[in-house]
Amino acid sequence: MAQGQDTKERDHIQGSLLDDPEYLRVIVERVLQQVLESEASHHLGAQPYQRTSGRLGHRNGHYNRTIKTRVGKLELSVPRDRGGLFQTAIFSSYQRNERAFLLALMEMTLQGVSTRKVGEITEALCGTEVSASMVSSLSVSLDDDLATWRNRPLQGSWPYLFVDARYEKTRHDHRVVSQGVLIVIGVNDAGRRSILAAEVVHSENESDYSDLFKRLQERGLTGVQLVVSDDHQGLRKAVDRYFQGASWQRCQVHFMRNLLSKLRKNDRGWVMASLKDVFRAPDRQQAEIRLKALVERLSASDPTVADWLESDGPDALSALDFPESHRRHIRSTNGLERLNEEILRRTRVIRIFPNRASCLRMVSALCQEQDEDWVTGRRYLDMTLLSKNEGVETPVELRRAV
């Protein structure tokens, strides 16, 4: 009984401390101070007062630095070295995505399109009054960094591409307009994902996609075998033009939604079950046989939808030309949709971007953060299966056979 009472009291005290902003501030301040000292020791090759032949320099006191964080104002003592070369990574101020978010809010305040609440938020984040010079100084280094990332050279081959577009509200010529956010994810020959492009355009047409693919090729994009996207005529034409010989996979999730919207209520259950059976086929040949049977059965009750399914259905089967273990990853744009959901989670707070540059900055920062997680994370696909084939002919071999 006494032990249970002690546990409750300990949990109560612990909870109270964690809810106390001052308690959290002190913890964060102490941890960051330790990080600063550790960084300085690593830079100099020696601990304070340590005598060692590997020393690269000497300490030269400290200077005070105040930074604003989510847990409050932190007062830190930053180590100096005699050569004046030591720099800490802590004072990047904010991660790229948070800095982009902050800049968007600040620009809204400057242009008079924000509410009083937005002004309070920006002042709380910055710790000072929002000014044009502050926006300029924060944006220059961040925009240069993001532009360098967006235009980085692409090495190796990229067999799989996933392309999608979403829309954000921005101010343009004194009007609020919807602008397309185009994102391209690639899987390279090492089986790792990377965000290859993030752009903001006025519309989503063949010209925009052509410009996007052209820039990707100029940066070194090669070896594309499959492009996965939703159905869009401009996108398909651009794919045919810039990735000749590559297959196109229509997102199966979007395809099922499109079919469901066309069906009569009485047909929805059995048709959707049959379509899923088509997608689960072991190979392309079996899938086409099952699709033909579904079309014939549906034509008796709804010939219009049956004709649509017969003409558009094969576009959703291209994933079956590739290794079986890859198919669940390449049959839809679900991975890209999850990235878009994360972008939406952040951009819905801003609601209307003050300009296109602000929108591009925010999207690029979020994409770069995600890209870095993928680069350092586990491998996405085993791409050796493309050469081993798992008994499945690749699109190139199929074209040669024809």
Tell me about this structure:
The structure is a single chain. The chain is α/β, with parallel strands linked by helices and 402 residues long. The protein has three domains: 17-91, no CATH class; 93-245 and 336-402, no CATH class; 252-332, no CATH class. 54% of the residues lie in helices and 16% in strands. It contains 16 helices and eight strands. The chain has helices at 2-19, 21-44, 96-110, 116-126, 132-150, 206-218, 233-242, 252-262, 265-279, 284-299, 303-312, 324-330, 334-350, 356-376, 384-388, 395-401; strands spanning 59-69, 72-81, 160-172, 175-187, 193-201, 226-229, 247-250, 352-353. The strands form two sheets. Strands 3, 4, 5, 6, 7 and 8 form a six-stranded mixed sheet that branches. A two-stranded antiparallel ribbon has the order 1-2. β3 (160-172) and β4 form a beta hairpin. α5 (132-150) crosses α14, α6 (206-218) runs parallel beside α7 (233-242) and α10 (284-299) runs antiparallel to α11 (303-312). The longest helix has 24 residues, at 21-44. Mean pLDDT is 82; it is low at 109-116 and 390-402.
